[in-house]
């Protein structure tokens, strides 16, 4: 199966600019260093066994799955998401 680079770039642009509705909030860090990342559960669960397990064991709140990860630096988590 061939995946065209243009399609990948279009999807990446949609996700980066939050043009698609997200359903996961990941709160990373503590205090003034705390940052909230917005993500898509489908993409997280297909790219990560950790999130696949975590999302299957968590109930969605009002509109979002919410994860709190205070012991991870936001800069490090950003690299993990890339």
Q: Secondary-structure blueprint of this entry?
A:
Layout: H1 5-16, E1 24-28, E2 35-39, H2 41-47, H3 49-56, E3 65-69, H4 74-81
Parallel strand pairs: 1-3
Antiparallel strand pairs: 1-2
- Determine and state the CATH class: Alpha Beta
Task: Count the DSSP helices.
Answer: 4
Average of the residue pLDDT scores: 81
Task: Give the end-to-end Cα distance, rounded to a whole number of Å.
Answer: 23 Å
Helix/strand order, N-terminal first:
HEEHHEH
Query: Radius of gyration, Cα only, in angstroms?
Result: 14 Å
User: How many distinct folded domains?
Assistant: 1
| Basic shape | globular
Order of strands side by side in the largest beta sheet?
2-1-3
Please describe the biggest sheet, giving its number of strands, its sense, and whether it closes into a barrel.
Answer: 3 strands, mixed
Estimate the strand proportion.
15-25%
Low-confidence stretches: none
Strand segment count: 3
Mind explaining what this structure looks like?
The longest helix has 12 residues, at 5-16. The chain has one domain (22-81): Potassium Channel Kv1.1, Chain A (2-Layer Sandwich). With 82 residues, it is an alpha+beta fold. It has a three-stranded mixed beta sheet. The chain is globular. A hairpin with a 6-residue loop joins β1 and β2. The two termini are 23 Å apart. It has four helices and three strands. α2 (41-47) crosses α3 (49-56).
Summarize the entry for a quick read.
The chain is α+β, with helices and mostly antiparallel strands.
């Amino acid at each position: 199966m061939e995946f065209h680079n243009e399609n990948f770039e279009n999807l990446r642009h949609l996700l980066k600019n939050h043009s698609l509705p997200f359903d996961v909030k990941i709160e990373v860090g503590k205090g003034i260093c705390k940052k909230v990342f917005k993500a898509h559960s489908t993409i997280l669960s297909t790219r990560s066994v950790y999130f696949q397990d975590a999302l299957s064991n968590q109930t969605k709140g009002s509109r979002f799955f919410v994860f709190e990860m205070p012991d991870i630096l936001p800069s490090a988590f950003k690299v993990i998401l890339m």
